[in-house]
Design a protein that fits this description.
By secondary structure, this protein is α+β, with helices and mostly antiparallel strands. It has 8 helices and 10 strands.
Length: 223
């Protein structure tokens, strides 16, 4: 029980709750192991639960009318996914695919809603998390509309480094098995364009590239 409570404490939406309150959460949790390539839920599925990542990585993406994948974000340990369906009888707006073997906790929405009704601290934390997600979504839309492909690519790399970066002697390395096409799907451009931008960033000595790995040499100067 203590180990499960400590795992929950690493998740922002639960981090400020007492051990007693966290025990109530643990009672509702269904833990699942997912292999790389597994789908947690599909876009359009009934949104009856939310999930939090205890280990591993998950990408969220939508599919356009031509079947092209548009990656919305990549989430790692401590992230919540599917939370937009809480308090709403709606379908999942995107697909969640595991890109690195993951352990994921799941809680049914009706059960968390009953718990929130009697727990104002948890309610406040969830509201803050949902508000943060809304703000980030709005900023992404603004960036897509106003920024060049070069700046969008640079910002995507920076954000991935902040969320999934590992400090090394060479700089901050993106600890992700991510392809140029994946980056292009996040930026909203072509793989060829992303490759060109990465080449420009490498030529400018902002990044280093070793196979699939991208290393930001100095993250403070990269902004």
């Amino acid at each position: 029980m203590e180990k499960r409570i400590n795992l929950l404490k690493r998740i922002p939406v639960f981090s400020k709750l007492s051990d007693e309150q966290l025990m109530d959460i643990v009672e509702l949790e269904i833990k699942k192991d997912y292999k790389k390539g597994s789908i947690i839920f599909y876009e359009g599925d009934k949104g009856d639960a939310f999930y939090y990542i205890q280990s591993g990585k998950v990408k969220m993406y939508k599919t356009d009318y031509e079947g092209k994948e548009i990656i919305l974000n990549i989430f790692g340990e401590g992230s919540i996914i599917g939370e937009v369906t809480m308090f709403n009888d709606i379908e999942y707006p995107a697909t969640a695919e595991v890109i690195e073997d993951a352990v994921v906790g799941m809680i049914y929405n009706n059960e968390i809603e009953n718990l929130v009704a009697n727990n104002k601290d948890l309610a406040l934390q969830i509201i803050k998390e949902l508000t943060k997600r809304l703000y980030n979504s709005q900023m992404n839309v603004k960036e897509m509309a106003l920024s060049s492909v070069y700046l969008r690519t640079k910002n995507v790399i920076l954000n991935l480094a902040k969320d999934h970066g590992v400090k090394t002697t060479r700089g901050i390395e993106l600890n992700l098995d991510i392809t140029r096409q994946d980056i292009a799907n996040i930026v909203g451009t072509t793989r060829e364009t992303v490759s060109r931008v990465l080449s420009e960033l490498k030529k400018a000595e902002d990044i280093d590239i070793k196979g699939k790995k991208i290393i930001i040499k100095d993250i403070d100067d990269f902004v």
